[in-house]
Design a protein that fits this description.
By secondary structure, the chain is mainly beta. The protein is built from five helices and 36 strands.
């Protein structure tokens, strides 16, 4: 059955900004992609990488990272609740567990389940850029970056500022019986500040949101906090650190085991920190050690009003150490690295488990004949549960001239099953499979990039072959879903995007963007007819159209999305934002799903 998905909100916001942190007219410099070991100017990348800058984020009708990513070609954001109470993200037709999410290069993957990987405390105003690397990224980020990686880079060059964002909104829909009286509505406040003190920079943020839902038992509330610091001792030695906390709880009606979980509720708490240094030992040698930790608590209550049964308590932790180095020479740049990741879980449902992962990197980059860029390398991996594997890859780009670039890549990667995949016992909804094998993939891609002045165009085509492809399946609606290795999946895709900025007059600016992606998955035929979770949700067509118009201090942003999933009907979503900028504050109104489309992004959630 389909249900109406009403207008989520017409939101009124106010902001206070002091300093120059939000200056839209500052000169844009060449973006440098860190890639953990080797630094590469964006214009010289050899991979399909899309950068969303802080300036571009300001031109979108969005309030969260999830909404920003929903306007990126090839990225599929599936929200179970509004405002990111529980959101999954996938790339190029893959599953959410095949995409690596990082914060400043630190893995945010959750060993229990990738449903929590986007549990991040980062407000939009703290973001410098978002890097979306498409295709197998094992050579750069290790395991579980099977279809790509999303790296959220927060600001390090900070002037003193204070930014406060307060907002309220409503769907103008009456609450359902059992939820209370009045309208579904909510709001929140975010406060972010930057401080520069001598050779150190500091970034602080705290936020609180609360909504009473958009349908029965979907109320949510969260608290988020972030602190980040950087110390530049001299040109050769720097120290950086960050930490964050998220306390997120929400009604989970239909989120995981519909229709049985109508009364379910979930409380998720996430703590994370990272400390790293950079040392330039000479003009040729740089090393970067880093230690990080991510701890997660998940309290899932199948019956929110009866905690004596069907309650799952999960405590998971991932401790990480990295040592990355780069050597620059006359014959090219060499990158070497080692990482260790120890994953632990204690769970009333999944049991107690531990596994360790050791990875070794090697990479080489050089330009030949001032035209041909080559980046090749491999990642060797040892996992205590699955043994040794290795993942090679090579990327090549040819610079035809200053504007036109052709590129191609071949790479391999792997995804190791989560503890939920292996051990969950959530009858009658889902049960795990301890006999699962890891997924492994090869991907082949070719593309073209053209950039001239304020005009940008890119197009690419790829083929990805996954062996031991994992999907949650069942043979009838009377039995639980269980993950299985279904043999081989062959995914083909094409995509194109275009973007252009105009200066209509001295006080008018106009920009537009458009993108299209087509995906065609093909799996080995199974003798038994099965019901698949991932096949139903997989993208087939994705069209994104956006317009940004600015007149003096007034601006309007209009974004449109058309999404057609493999087994569901297509739907069209329009989002609108109107705003006016005063000297030290901004007022804006925002509407999502302007024409009240009916659709489902994931599972049984309307």
């Amino acid at each position: 059955m389909k249900h109406k998905y009403y207008l989520i909100g017409i939101l009124a916001f106010s902001n206070l900004a002091v300093g120059q942190s939000l200056d839209e007219n500052e000169e844009l410099e060449e973006v440098i992609i860190q890639e953990n070991r080797l630094t590469i100017p964006f214009s010289q990348t050899t991979r399909n990488i899309q950068i969303i800058t802080k300036e571009e984020i300001q031109k979108l009708p969005v309030s969260s990272i999830y909404e920003v990513l929903s306007y990126v070609s090839g990225v599929d954001v599936r929200q179970r609740g509004p405002f990111g109470s529980q959101a999954d993200v996938a790339i190029d037709g893959g599953s959410f567990e095949q995409t690596m999410v990082l914060w400043n290069g630190v893995k945010m993957s959750d060993a229990q389940t990738a449903h929590h990987s986007m549990n991040l405390p980062i407000p939009l105003v703290a973001i410098e850029r978002i890097e979306i690397l498409k295709g197998p990224a094992a050579r750069i980020y290790g395991i579980n970056a099977l279809t790509g990686a999303i790296n959220i880079v927060t600001k390090t060059q900070i002037t003193d500022f204070v930014h406060v964002n307060a907002y309220v909104g409503s769907s103008f829909k009456d609450q359902e019986k059992g939820d209370g009286s009045g309208l579904y509505a909510g709001g929140g406040v975010q406060a972010t500040a930057g401080l520069q003190a001598g050779k150190t920079n500091h970034l602080f943020s705290i936020a609180k949101e609360e909504y009473n839902g958009q349908r029965y038992n979907t109320a949510s509330k969260n608290i988020k906090a972030l602190y980040q610091g950087n110390a530049n001792f001299n040109e050769k030695n720097t120290l950086n650190w960050f930490g964050g906390f998220v306390d997120n709880e929400f009604g989970a009606n239909g989120y995981y085991a519909a229709p049985h979980d109508k009364e379910s509720y979930e409380i998720v708490k996430t703590f994370m920190f990272s400390v790293g240094t950079m040392h330039k030992l000479s003009d040729h040698i740089t090393i970067k050690p880093r230690i990080s930790n991510r701890y997660n608590e998940d309290d899932y209550r199948f019956y929110r009003n009866d905690l004596s049964k069907a309650r799952s308590l999960h405590y998971s932790n991932a401790a990480m150490f990295e040592l990355n180095g780069a050597y620059r020479s006359d014959i090219g740049d060499f990158g070497l690295g080692y990482e260790m990741r120890s994953e632990d879980i204690r769970s009333s449902n999944l049991g107690s488990h531990n596994r360790k992962n050791h990875g070794w990197y090697a990479e080489y980059k050089n330009m030949f004949f001032d035209k041909l860029l080559v980046n090749a390398g491999a990642y060797w991996n040892y996992n205590t549960d699955y043994g040794f594997q290795w993942y090679p890859g090579v990327d090549v780009a040819y610079l035809w001239n200053n504007h036109l670039k052709f590129q191609g890549s071949v790479g391999s990667s792997q995804r190791i099953p989560s503890f939920t995949d292996l051990y969950v016992n959530q009858r009658p909804g889902n049960i795990g499979n301890p006999n699962l094998n890891p997924e492994s993939a090869w991907q082949y891609e070719v593309g073209i990039d053209y950039t001239k002045s304020d005009f940008k165009f890119s197009a690419s085509a790829f083929q990805r072959v996954i062996d031991d492809f994992i999907d949650w399946t069942r043979i009838s609606v009377d039995v639980p879903y269980q993950p299985q290795n279904l043999g081989q999946q062959n995914m083909r895709g094409i995509q194109a995007r275009i973007k252009q900025d105009f200066e209509v007059s001295s006080n008018q600016k106009l920009s537009y963007s458009a993108s299209y992606q087509y995906l065609s998955p093909k799996e080995e035929e199974n003798a038994t007819e099965i019901i698949s979770k991932y096949k139903i949700e997989s993208l087939k067509h994705q069209v994104i159209l956006g317009i940004d118009y600015r007149y003096n201090d007034f601006s309007t942003q209009l974004q449109n999305r058309y999404v057609k999933r493999e087994m569901n009907e297509g739907y069209f979503i329009t989002d609108l934002r109107l705003q006016y900028q005063f000297s030290t504050f901004q007022v804006y109104m925002q509407a999502t799903n302007l024409f009240n489309s009916t659709y489902k992004e994931v599972a049984a959630v309307p």
